[in-house]
Amino acid sequence: MLKRLIHIDTSLDESLQSQIRNKLVEGILVGSFALGSRLPSSRKLAEQLGVARNTVVLVYQTLQDEGYIISKERSGIYVNEKIHQGWVNDNELHMAYQPKASDNQHRFKGTLQVTNDTACPADWQKYSYPFIDGKFDVSLYPVKEWRDANQQANVTREINQWSQLQGLGDDPMLIEQIRTKVIPRRGIQASSDEILITVGTQQALHLISQLFVDDTVTVAVEEPGYPEVRDLLQYSGANLLYQPVDDNGMQVNEQLDRCDIVYTTPSHQTPTSVTMSMTRRHELLDKAKAQDLLIIEDDFEFESNFLRQPHPALRSLDSGNRVVYISCLSKVLASGIQIGFIVADSGVISELKKLRKMTMRNPPLNNQRAVAYFLSLGYYDAFMLHLHKVFFERWLTLREALNTYLPNCIDTGPIQGGTAYWITGPPQLDGENLREKAAELGILIEPVKRYFAQSKHPENCFRMGITSIPNHRIRDGVSKLADLIHQLTEEHEEKLGNASGKLLNDEALRKCLPGARLECQMVYGVPCTIDLLPDGSMSGHTGGIGSEIDTGHWWIENGMYWRQWKLWSYGEVKGFYVIMDGDQMKWFDQNYSFVRQLDLKGYPATLDQ
Amino acid sequence: MLKRLIHIDTSLDESLQSQIRNKLVEGILVGSFALGSRLPSSRKLAEQLGVARNTVVLVYQTLQDEGYIISKERSGIYVNEKIHQGWVNDNELHMAYQPKASDNQHRFKGTLQVTNDTACPADWQKYSYPFIDGKFDVSLYPVKEWRDANQQANVTREINQWSQLQGLGDDPMLIEQIRTKVIPRRGIQASSDEILITVGTQQALHLISQLFVDDTVTVAVEEPGYPEVRDLLQYSGANLLYQPVDDNGMQVNEQLDRCDIVYTTPSHQTPTSVTMSMTRRHELLDKAKAQDLLIIEDDFEFESNFLRQPHPALRSLDSGNRVVYISCLSKVLASGIQIGFIVADSGVISELKKLRKMTMRNPPLNNQRAVAYFLSLGYYDAFMLHLHKVFFERWLTLREALNTYLPNCIDTGPIQGGTAYWITGPPQLDGENLREKAAELGILIEPVKRYFAQSKHPENCFRMGITSIPNHRIRDGVSKLADLIHQLTEEHEEKLGNASGKLLNDEALRKCLPGARLECQMVYGVPCTIDLLPDGSMSGHTGGIGSEIDTGHWWIENGMYWRQWKLWSYGEVKGFYVIMDGDQMKWFDQNYSFVRQLDLKGYPATLDQ
After folding, report:
1. Å from B121 to nearest chain A CA?
2. Per-residue model confidence as pLDDT tens digits over B508-547
3. Which candidate in A88, A216, A328 is best for mutational testing of the B interface (most B CBs within 10 A)?
4. Where on the phi/psi map is residue A85: left (φ > 0), alpha (ψ -120 to 50), or beta?
């Protein structure tokens, strides 16, 4: 019988001793070994299980120390009857349980209205192409380093330190690490009483709304914007004003004169990923000064400023004291461990601390100390470097794929970082339909409806995130998605057969292409210029930040223009039919589908007849 | 220079490799090694530090993997210039920092009124006799077991599981463990959708008050009672009713007809440690049914039911659905890790989950999984057994010491468990003065003022807790405290010289003591009977639950009654002067101070002349 209960698996990492101990404990707790019953001697048990006697002796010693068994001299080893000491003596416990009727609704003081979650299936990991933001890729998690930091924090000396802090405040070691290693990244300086630790940024927002918001307060939020903040502010009774977002971030206009508080996500606007420009930042701070506004700056992700040095946080630019700053250590690390923080003046921090104590005491102190070690051992800096590298790579891969497979079809806006692209598709695209059809092909994209509170959401928009998809899947996923988009909008697309303009044959192509300069727009909003040299070589360069150049070859064959770049368009050979419509050149692929439109500079009008 | 920066300490547990890695990282982060600068070759560094070259090679390999250094072929090893990639480029960061003026008070929507904390000094661990409740003794912390559980939860496979749960709910593994291993101790059954994990019991209370309380709601709380709950309920706008507490727990009377919600701590009432009797429990549930009340049952400590099997929780006794149950895994474990939970019907849990999501998303998932392992590996059961043993021992030691050193002077009430004694001292005692004077002697006791909201607190009461003081310190601490109490109330105490009644000499003692039965009251409210047998032996027994007996010897010498118990009063020889006042016998010690009063059964009236 014992052999059946204690099945030993030598293929496991777990030691024999640990396996035997755990099975015995399980047996005692579920009642396979009755309380007070006698267990076999160590010699016998060792024989039955086919293990060294010493192994069983050590297991029995552990169980005795833990209180599970009792050794009686000259009698044997028994299951401790007191293992259930302190339990209620309730014979009815083994009756089948009938859950209680849910009949307390009439006592609820209002029901919370919350925006639906992103329609991301729980089993998203089974999809081949999860272009979703926030759901994280465990391969990015710094498992080894986190384990090490965690172990450093869980020795007796450390436990003795952090356990004493309860109710008094935050771990001073973590505050110091955040003060010196995290917020300087964003240009922010603070003294230790200007920082509060929170359970993630959501608690930070909740505490701030408890302190500053009631039904006399008007708060401006971004539109489109972060739905969880809208829900929270509305729950606190706030009147909301919706501020439009443009390519420079949240707009600053006279509507702000009517509000008391502005909530904004300047680093990478949620959900558009737009970075607020320096000019706009100063306009906002000036407005706050003129109108005596408080600004809540939510800087939830700063590991993803790719194209240039990031702009300093609003809090660091503010010469007064009008910015309450919220952030976390990183989206990847925060997921699960849930350490966020607030930077504000000491008066605000001290009042928030009282609210935090009343609503939950401290954020777990074991995690505070573990994160402090993660920072102090330099793991955080190395991790941020790594994340930046990985995310940047994915971000560029996605951009390149979008540009290759969906030129002249979508628009991502001129963004410089962030972990998701906001994509505007062809005007006829039904985003919700696309999302459903894409999911059937294993491609997950994010709908955008939830980000709009007041205005109707654009039906042809969707989001694609990079935190959860490995780099090597991106191109293939976009290629498949592009096929689907073309399929869904086919009836509205130009085809070679019905396109306006004139199809060029070999001769016409030979007349106009050598020496021509072609101009077009990348999907991410920067211009691209291509020079087709008479000798069959070509060169291209894109404008904007982080501009790129490439070279390649071109030729004319079978009524088509052919080209091959070294790097661009994956270095593939590709041929296009060319139609000229005025000075607009249109390319169609071998299936006669429209691909891209370009300006042909200096197109000789005579050819156009 | 390197040797100065990288000081190796061979006496540490930390490996050489780890020491060198950490010092180099620190040097890079604080700028001792400039970004882009060249580091010595592994051969040179090994020579300088006097370590094996391979050690340095491995360190350099780690740093290269982490991104701190870059190896350039045929050139050497350099500090990675990109280590500050993503940092704001801000030259002003190195200016001396001036904290922001705290001038946002005018924006606060009310200031939170909170009851002051227990007057426990932050450096309480330096006091010899910390009789305080809740501040914990690190020696009780299951360090090894917690580390093991924590490690199990922090491997890639587990991280991948718990990280995906964010926003969706709690760790199903933890819910299942609580369902099957924790709440059955209290007689409670629940399905998995009837349990919610919280950041400690304080968050549980906050979420519940958010759902059920506003300014139209009247809540009955205990008086004296838990101040943090009063603060929270008042913050939520509740009207409070104060329910008196007696030896059976919170009183149930017609005042409850005027309330909507009752908050109670039946297991061990905060702060008196009184257990609510079964009769009272049923009265309360009947009242709740008759008046349609909701009961919030705060079962914050259940590891300390010492004298009998604990009563089932109210939730388990309730045939309807009127009890929302709150608890945590244990005060000791909760401090720091902060895992609490709520049991209620699924409709309530689902609404609380929405509130929790809005106010902080999930309690940290790494801790949820680690606690789940702590439970599933049987560490929790062993730990609770151990805690029960240790606390019970301390609890008995403190009771015995109080009974020995402060008989007929204090009263602890008839309590059966809990981790603190509520002590009523002599009527003239000034508890606050006692606390201050005791602290000067290294003795910490708790004042009780903060527990009273409406009524004036009794000046002569204080609390003594056992969670933070080792067993071997208890007797000595109480002995010193008793001396202090006698000193402070001396002028009101009877002295041998001014006592009413008649001092017995040897002859009178010999006439009345042999065969006499003495009756007195223990400080914890149970009777004690002592039989002085004519042969000089004696026997004693106490009533109440867990009654005790002892035997000893007695004799008469130098006008005093002497006795020595085997176990009681620490088996010490002690002599008393005896005064008879009617049938009341009064003992005075060698300093003529009053010690104890007893009934002498069958005292021959003829002697009293």
Report:
1. 11
2. 999 999 999 999 999 988 899 999 999 999 999 998 776 7
3. A88
4. beta
